[in-house]
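Sample 1 of the test manifest.
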Amino acid sequence: MASQAEETSPAHELETSKSTKANAAASTGETSVLTKPRRSKYRHVAAYHSQVRHSSLSRDADWTPSFLGFRNLMVLVLVAMNLRLIIENFMKYGVLICIKCHDYRQRDIVLGSILFALVPCHLFTAYIIELATAGAAKKTVGQPKKTDEEKEHDQQVFRSTWRYTAFLHTLNATLCLAVTSFVVYFYIHHPGIGTLCELHAIIVWLKICSYAFTNRDLRLALLNPSSDPGLPEIYASCPYPRNITIENLCYFWLAPTLVYQSVYPRTSSVRWSFVAKRLAEFGGLSVFIWLLSAQYAAPVLRNSIDKIAVMDIASILERVMKLSTISLVIWLAGFFALFQALLNALAEVMRFGDREFYTDWWNSSSLGVYWRSWNRPVYLFMKRHVYSPLVGRGWSPLAASGMVFLLSAILHEMLVGIPTHNFIGVAFVGMLFQLPLIAVTAPLEKMRDPLGKVIGNCIFWVSFCLVGQPLGALLYFFAWQAKYGSVSRMR
Amino acid sequence: MASQAEETSPAHELETSKSTKANAAASTGETSVLTKPRRSKYRHVAAYHSQVRHSSLSRDADWTPSFLGFRNLMVLVLVAMNLRLIIENFMKYGVLICIKCHDYRQRDIVLGSILFALVPCHLFTAYIIELATAGAAKKTVGQPKKTDEEKEHDQQVFRSTWRYTAFLHTLNATLCLAVTSFVVYFYIHHPGIGTLCELHAIIVWLKICSYAFTNRDLRLALLNPSSDPGLPEIYASCPYPRNITIENLCYFWLAPTLVYQSVYPRTSSVRWSFVAKRLAEFGGLSVFIWLLSAQYAAPVLRNSIDKIAVMDIASILERVMKLSTISLVIWLAGFFALFQALLNALAEVMRFGDREFYTDWWNSSSLGVYWRSWNRPVYLFMKRHVYSPLVGRGWSPLAASGMVFLLSAILHEMLVGIPTHNFIGVAFVGMLFQLPLIAVTAPLEKMRDPLGKVIGNCIFWVSFCLVGQPLGALLYFFAWQAKYGSVSRMR
């Protein structure tokens, strides 16, 4: 019966309609035989309300409906809102992008190139230091040892040698960083070129530290093979001091890691198509970031200057919020460009096997998880050469973490403050402020309730991406403007 | 070994650090016995890069990470962006909300009240018509029938009676709708009061139609019990003509449905706390919608007038996008206020059992699914009294759907055009435009690939909520402004 079919499946209109139609056709056939006038058998009596049912959003409802549609809606609203801002921006400012307007100075490029070329020299110096020490160690090992006294003497020789080596390495590494920082701060005006030089110097400084520490302990293991914990198996193919070669060091210099190992897991071949794709991603995202900065971030930043100057809190808040979306997109694009595209391309060219440059930091349920997962190269360096040694010496984990973030804060302030010629301490304070945030969000990370993780994740996003980054950018921009006026010639 | 423990779980810093510390403590204990100088056993040699691993965003990766964090980020960015717009709005306009400024006219309220009181009279008239017809039918059934000829005669009498009944019902229902529409269009200035009156009239018009059709077919079943499909079981407790009472009709008038049944599923008691909560939701959301309209929608609409007047496409697009977020929020709040809060409260008071006023329309993968799920009362009316009868008469499902949307388009235009005193046909065209959209998205609904459903869902949101609604609101507002100037006295 048509009406009954509809009762059982009221939602499937089309199917029902077919059966209704079939019924109707059948009845038409019947009536035509009886020569009655053609009349529908349909009756307006179906009991559509035949049972007690609850609205799906009520608490009484037996099942909670999926809300996937609202996720799609959120994406669409975000796209629409930002598309609107793009139109608004275009109507207000027109096209701000201008390749020739940028204020590159000839001297900046020359100095930057010299600094880039100087840094490998410090690496070479580190190699020379290690080569000399390795030679001394080989001699000691070559002699047959008989008594415990002689062994103790060896240890003392090792320790005094290490004192010299450590001094030379420190001198070499610090000189590398100090010269670059000095030149960038006083002679390189352009913040982009300055940042590149400073970043390269900091990376090489970290690499020299790791190189020196690791080789010291490899040497110790060679001198005293019995009393020490065994070395990782992967080092067996290149035992100390066979790793002290210029090729080995160059590989470490170019490899996407800050942690020195005499041997790394390697891939069997270079997939050049993979490299090309990653480099294309990097190039595309770099252009995207540049467009976004020039067309959207720059006007917002410029418009904020007056408001910061008079400390109008509501306006500053409004500016930080407007900036937060842009800086968030730039940050995400920059993360992808550097950690996914560039480091993967570099790793592929170097046949470097371990590509875990980051894990899923976007799901971080606490600030602690975030700092352990977004930048694995730096995290692993800090863990291996700062945190674990300090804990090994009896420091509390909290104190060791504090030390890690203190060092990190200094490096961040150098990386931002030196190229912008403004040591205003915002990056430093921002990094140290992570410690209380980590402490506050740590309990959320361990909660079993998914709500705790969601709250932790939201705290992470708000503190880091929606407030921290744009506020920092705003303050450094303000300091820059106060010192120099505009970075670009305004049209 | 500390270094090995770290190799296996490099991410669990704290746990590792504890074991490192324990090791260190053990070694300290050992060395103190041997009176050696206190020295850490920690070695900077751990092989953190011990295996080939892929970046989690690479295609090579063995598993795709969860992206739940980005969902949280989207929510936060939406909140931040809208919070910014709220601050911007406040800085531009200050507080626009003003209870006393609203342009209520005394006459509007008086006329509206009279219209509201008149409508039940038409229901009473419908009852009188049905009562008379039921009396005649009872007489016919009372007589013992002998021959087929007499039965055929009965049928003819029934049909001629139905002609009179149908004429009277049509006259009554149309008069009800026509009088209200006329008064609202020409004499009630305020669009809010007008909309309420028109909505009530349309609802009662639909109810009278359903009442007349259903009772006709119940009567037919009474006169001709053998040749007809059986009636739904739920009607057994109140067979025709025992349902023709004033109480039964009043219940149908107030019940949250447009489909007449002599019996409805009922709940056993009224939970007054449930009613109170739903009414509180309704009140709160109504205030929220009013605030949103006055503070955010009104300025955007007013600022759009000049742009529409000069047909500046980019600006109109920008305005529609700015309006789309606000109209979307108003729409969602309005949907919840009406379909979840108000109808559930009404159903609870009436002990009406079937609360399925909507299903999860937000997940609609096509426009067809949306129109079948967002407004179940109207959908069920259209299905029972327009679509299915037409298909039963041999119409194609497409033609029957076309008829449904044509009727719906007329009612929508009446509901919007009459209270705003502007028959500009946008609501009419918008509803008819659903037919091609339904046809286009129907294949997506049936795709097995979830991507098809996501695309269909996005088409639904964009066409309906992000473009259709704000554009419609803009055009009716423009027409209103062109005719009357502002609806509120501007401060």
